[in-house]
Amino acid sequence: MKIIILLTIFALYENINHSGIPVVDFDTFEPRLHLKNDTTYVINFWASWCLPCREELPDLEKLHRSYYTKKVKVILVSLDMPDQIESRLVPFLEKNNITAPTILLDDPDFNRWINKIDNTWGGAIPATLIYNKEGRVFLNRKTHYEELENIIQSNTIKP
Amino acid sequence: MKKLVLTSLLGTLFVTTLLADGYKPGDKASDFRLMNIDGQYISLNDYKSAKGFVIVFTCNHCPYAQAYQERLIAIDNQYASKGFPVIAINPNDPDVSPGDSFDEMQKRAREKKYPFPYLFDETQEVYKMYGAERTPHVFLLKKEENDFIVKYIGAIDDNYKDATLVTKKYLENAIEAVLSGQSPEPSHTKAIGCSIKTKKQ
Question: Where are the domains of chain B?
């Protein structure tokens, strides 16, 4: 019963479209920035039309594949236009074999929420937030696998 | 964990240093001399009767920049005659972003019939001086004596997707405030945009 209620709540707040990619506004998304458990979250802000984002995405996918059993969760937060999910986002993910969890953040009132991700962020993508219950690192630029791995391994969670 | 905190601290210091390079509302902005799509060089000092400027770092390829093309034309139509012309500047390196080459800039300006100059920041010095971080990124300047004072920095409005759903016209409100001798509130907003494409090292 609990599961049914939970699923209902989930369905109410997240518009899950035909492609299966959840479309969320910032208020729905925000709790994922403050989870206090034993997992380290790597949250990447990107879009399929953004060249530096496309260049770093294979590294995030590699991180997801290497660490998803080791209490590291990669979440790809796409800022693609919602009407381009089927035409651009999904074909891009499929073509590049991206399997890391992807959601689409659809909330054009940017000024309301950018500082809530990190107040040093100017809003340019790509950007990546790495956090766990101990601390947070925000990368206001393109990143790569070694950098992400160094940040993850520098904290208390040793895979 | 100590390392994570340290990395975080270093990151914050790094970013603070970067931001300190750009303008804040109240700062004096420098003039520049950049080539327009017609091959002529343009400086702020060429505009003798201007009361100020809407400087927009923007480009061709970025979907957010594209979303605001028509709205910038409307802003220029509305405010150039009131002393606040739009000046668009493309800060991207065409080697990294081919859609933003000088030729492509000329094409876009022709297609869209830009009523404002569209300048090329070829050496990428002007966007750094201003502290632009993304496209589009607006800097509203007011002429005071011989100085250009930054009055507003940030977004054009609060809905890139649909101009009819805009609830806060940040830039327009800021220009109206300056025209009536007030300080814009807010004087600084943020928006998601495309990173500025810099020369590969």
Answer: 24-195
- Phi and psi dihedrals of B112, rounded to 5? -90, -5
- Chosen from B95, B160, B195 to mutate, greatest number of chain A CBs within 10 A: B195
Q: Which amino acid is at B146?
A: N
**Mean pLDDT over all residues of chain A?**
89
Cβ B142 vs Cβ B178: under 8 Å: yes
- The pLDDT score that the predictor gives to residue B201 is 62
Q: Would you call A97 an interface residue with chain B, using a CB distance cutoff of 8 Å?
A: no
> Minimal CA–CA distance to B188: which of B175, B165, B171, B167?
B171
ipTM value for the complex: 0.86
Q: Which residues of B touch A120 (CB under 8 A)?
A: 11-12, 15-16, 19
- Residue-range domains of chain A with CATH: 22-153 (3.40.30.10)
Residues of chain B in contact with residue A110, where contact means CB-CB under 8 angstroms, are: 155, 158, 160, 190-192
Tell me if B119 sits within 8 A of B89, measured CB to CB: yes
Question: Which residues are B36's β-sheet partners?
Answer: B119
Q: What is the mean pLDDT of residues A92-102?
A: 96
Pick the CATH number of B24-195 from 3.40.190.10, 1.20.120.1730, 3.30.70.3190, 3.40.30.10: 3.40.30.10
Q: What would the pLDDT profile of A31-80 be if each residue is shown by its tens digit?
A: 999 999 999 999 999 999 999 999 999 999 999 999 999 999 999 999 99
